[in-house]
Specification:
The protein is mainly alpha-helical. It has 4 helices and 2 strands.
Length: 92
């Protein structure tokens, strides 16, 4: 199954490999044959960034990845602030 995109860059990048990756996974350092990041790897990065508000084992390498991780951290902070404000409002 292929995803239809405007320029098919996603498909081409997936088929050719990761020459200029956005993230450095621990498996990249060990050069495991046949390994490539999947959706679950990126979801794990997203979860650890939202919870720890910092990269854990996977480092962002490009400005785009760093910017997106910063935006995600700001969104998770905003959600926490809204939940705490709602709880305080409900108590008082």
């Amino acid at each position: 199954m292929r995803v239809k995109t405007g320029s098919c860059r996603v498909i081409v990048r997936a088929e050719r490999g990761r020459h200029n990756p956005d993230f450095e996974f621990p498996q990249d350092a060990r050069r495991r044959a046949g390994w490539s990041p999947r959706l679950s790897d990126y979801l794990y990065v997203s979860l650890t960034n939202a919870v720890a508000v910092s990269p854990t084992d996977t480092m962002p390498l490009t400005r785009r990845a760093k910017g997106l991780m910063a935006v995600e951290s700001l969104i998770s902070y905003a959600v926490v602030i809204l939940v705490v404000a709602r709880a305080v409002n409900a108590l008082g």
